[in-house]
Amino acid sequence: MIDLKKIISHSKEYGFVFPSSEIYDGLSATYDYGPFGVELKNNIKKHWWQSMVYEHENIVGLDSAIFMHPLIWKASGHVDAFNDPLVDNKDSKKRYRADALIEDQLVKFQQKINKEIKKGEKRFGSKFEIVTFQKTNARILKYNDKIKNSKEKLNAALEKSDMNALNELISDLEIRCPVSGTSNWTEVRTFNLMFDTQLGAVADESNKLYLRPETAQGIFVNFLNVQKSARKKIPFGIAQIGKAFRNEIVARQFIFRMREFEQMEMQFFVKPGQEIEWYQFWKQSRMEWHKSLNLCQGNYKFHDHSNLAHYANAACDIEYEFPIGFKELEGIHSRTNYDLSQHQNYSKKKLSYFDSESNESYLPYVVETSVGLDRLFLSVLCGSFAEETVNNEKRTVLKLPNYLAPISVAILPLLKKDGLDDYARNLFNDLKIKFPCHYEDKDSIGKRYRRQDAIGTPLCITIDHDTLIDKKITIRDRDTMLQERVSISNLSDLIKERIGS
Ligand code: GAP
Predict the structure, then answer these.
(1) Which of 171, 218, 381, 469 shows the smallest number of beta carbons within 10 Å?
(2) pTM
């Protein structure tokens, strides 16, 4: 897998992602999307919307407000329980997520196990049997024991929000600050991840608003509005794309974890008792969707949750192999009727659905699919990035799915004279209303090809002197670099066919 640093510098150089507020030395964990980044992001949104909304008769869209009634966040549990455990090192003054520190320590134990295995391989040569070795080596057994016990303690502590148990784990595992190297820690305390702001001019508790930490709650509180206005029968879904905000303690790793990000979520409302069947359906369906992007690099896997949130009866993540390892890309959650029943209790408005087929009223159960748009963007970028040597020259190319590329076709006159530029401009004017196009006549044709490769343009069209006579252009494929001479008369159909969807 490619180094994340390369992706970050490529993104900046070629106008995909810039650090936000850069001329003021940046604002941590916020990013701006540049001219090609915004196109790629919009194309990803369109592709998701197409497959979730337009291709499902029983899914409709919504665009709810970012600001919502503050009680919504009390009802959803975010005010009381959307917390991360936080700990400071008194010497370095660095702040960490306690669970992340503990997990990092467990990774170190795993690395020690791997070292022992390497030593064993060296010592026993061809007689080395890894399974027996792992079962009998005292050090490996000790580390495995520590990992297993600590994981169990960590999960139990997080589930019960038991900060004392986290303090104990940090001390038992002798965790040191990566910066100061000391174990001089403060007590672990909880930290709510929601940003708040004020409604109107008077700053007091009653005017406190939150920036939504997920788009899902906007869907839940509009459940009946949508169901009635769109005349939908259960099972049906509501999809939404929008900004979400979380005051992440550890916000690193480029656009993987940001404080302002976008989610693409879909809540699927089903009859109670049918939720696990639908959960399995969406779990498979979303995995197939990711795989159908056909990225050149990076695998996907499921991570089934063993410790479920109190409101869920099944949950998993789809993980992608980012340059920083396998990490969560999308969550699929069977959320029971927890959210609807909480909103019903807090708002004192009935949210039940009358099922005319079974002649009964019930609060539907919900299966949620939730993918971070920025994380998906990062997976597409990393999975498409390639460095190749062509004729002893290096080229960097983004082998993006053609239908996601910021620009579909670049129109490049071989020379900026002899009428080639006028011909190319006319062609550009003709094509630009049908496809995202780009015209460029500066620099050598080789340089122009390289620039288009670097932003992932699938097709380049060159106009040369022969074009003026035979009305044929050269079309170059980004991935194979093969060039074909084709007539301009059916060029649009050819481009359409190559860009696909
Ligand atoms: N409504 C459910 C929900 O919000 P989540 O697992 O907290 O679940 C869903 O978030 C997805 O949102 C994640 O799988 C991830 O892709 C994305 N996401 C969450 N926090 C993020 C952050 N700080 N920066 C970027 N993406 C984030």
Answers:
(1) 469
(2) 0.90
